Amino acid sequence: MGNQSRVSGTLTLEEFLATPDASWREGKRYLEYIDGRIEAKVSPQGKHSLLTVRIADRVNLFAEPARLGLALVELRCTFAGRSIIPDVAFFSEDHIEYDADGEIANAFHRPPDLHVAIISPEQSVRNATYKLIHSTAHGCQLGLLVHPQRKTIDVFGPGMPPERLLSGGVIFGEPILPGFRLPVTEVFGWLRPRRPSISPSSDPGAQPS
Question: What is the C-alpha end-to-end distance of the chain, expressed in Å?
Answer without folding.
Answer: 49
